[in-house]
Predict the 3D structure of the following.
Amino acid sequence: MTASVRAGALPRASAQAPANIAFIKYWGTRDSEATLPYNPSISMTLSHCVSRCTIERLGGGPGEVLFRPPGSVLAPAAPGFAEGVRRHLSALASWAGVEGPFRVATENTFPTGAGIASSASGFAALAAAFCGLVDRQVTPRELSVLARASGSGSAARSAFGGYVEWPEGEGKEEGYAVCLAAEGHWEIHDLVAVVDDSPKGVSSRQGHEAALSSPYFQPRLELLAERLAVVRRAIERRSLADLGPVIEEEAIDLHLIAMSSRPAIFYWRPATLAVLAAVRDLRAEGTAVWATIDAGPNVHLICESAEVERVAAAVGSMPEVSRLIRDRVGAGPCPLEEHLI
Ligand code: PMV
């Protein structure tokens, strides 16, 4: 990725990076300074849910963070969002040995902060655009480390397409993700049943910190070696029958831990339970679909191509579901020729 320079203007570069949905969840931070997890996680990279980011180097001034909500225009980002971008930018700038100020503009193709991994895609896109700006060619592995420097661990997985594992990692530089299989290996769909697209009240960061206080944190860790092995094998053999039950158990356990941590965190809404019940009904009728949920109320419905229309018709028509995002396994980050600013 290289920076483009307009006549008389400052260098800028743009990139796109995908969100991902975790099959085995990252929940609980072992080292919050280095953003290292207690357990390995495995995810599928998404195709439709992406973040786009443009970064421009400014000649002076305080710098600027802009955000474009869907269907709207670029405007100064909310303070919490802008703070996260500035923190990540300062880590990226010290890695590259360059100084700001910078202007950053970003947009997501999906609801932000609602448990659809907008921090993963957003920070991976920022890291990728930044590498373009400073003309540094990086491998996906290096991008994975840079994306994680944001403090969003799941961003490490958004550096790759397909099916991705982020091991627990030993040190700051080792905490990179690896690709288990490229997107062409297995066509899995993720229909996101949006029941509430407002930003969640409790951040993942707070959830990771509180997780250790749950009496169920340690027991889940003990189940993980087996679950990880099942998920890796299911991906290798393209077996949704093996994958499905484990991803549902993982989602329930994440929320069990969240609800039983101190303070207790409830991401679910009544509509979340209604969608989970619909998924069980679909399975009872013979439709192979399983659910997973990240740190938010929205439900990801995981199925293969043959089941997509049946699942979309059943869940998309529920009064509790405001919108169904049709997504599928996708590719990793890429540079963009078109800039947001
Ligand atoms: O990467 P973070 O700090 O936003 O945490 C992600 C947490 C989950 O989305 C709930 C699970 C995961 O592995 O993506």
